[in-house]
Amino acid sequence: MKKILHPAATRGTADYGWLKANYSFSFANFYDPNRLGFGKLRVLNDDFIAPAMGFSKHPHANMEIVTIPQTGSLKHKDSMGFSEVIRSGEIQIMSAGSGVEHSEVNASTTEAISLFQIWILPETENVPPRYAQEKIAPLLIENKLTTIVWPKDKATNTELYVHQQAYFNLGDFTEDTITTYTLHQQNHGAYIFVISGTVFVDSEKLSDRDAIGIWDTDSIALDIKKHSRVLLIEVPMN
Predict the structure, then answer these.
(1) pTM above the 0.85 mark?
(2) Which of 39, 120, 169, 229 is the most interior residue, by most CB within 10 Å?
(3) Could you tell me the pLDDT band of residue 145, with boundaries at 50, 70 and 90?
(4) Which of 164, 182, 202, 194 is nearest to 41 (CA)?
């Protein structure tokens, strides 16, 4: 087993006034040659956006973009014709594929919004752009890691997917829980991000916003303490 520890305090940070950002990997003005991503996981940004502010229209191509609001609501508008509001408790997926433009703005004029924006490198380039959105709560099983996003070729008609052999798993834990996560393929790794609470992974203690990447193993043992919320993203490492 190999691992890399990313304590919350070691993330890149930026304060643009309207946007306060924390970067798990090199992004924008934060560059660390040792933190260019984790396998096919390229971006995990922990953003706080001021009321009525946000990202004006901008382009993307050949990237799987997953947005998970933690508090508040986000207005999304894109060149595919989608104009949606994504709320806390929901998840949004946009496959940029052959090219798309979109904007993302805090839907509230009085309250800040916090969200995770996650980018995955696709296994197939130049696919037609697409948009999907879903409520998370009905998908979750209490005190278990639940897969909420699947690879396209593994997903059913009702399951959210990305164009990559990647699995997004989310868990809300109200009780102390010891569990084992089994990787789907030998060349995969898992990036475990503690949204809140305390988790022990391979003798490492992780707290709020700490993360650890694990690879070169078939399975990962997790000791998750009650009142914890955990995001685990499994991706190919090559």
Answers:
(1) yes
(2) 120
(3) very high
(4) 164
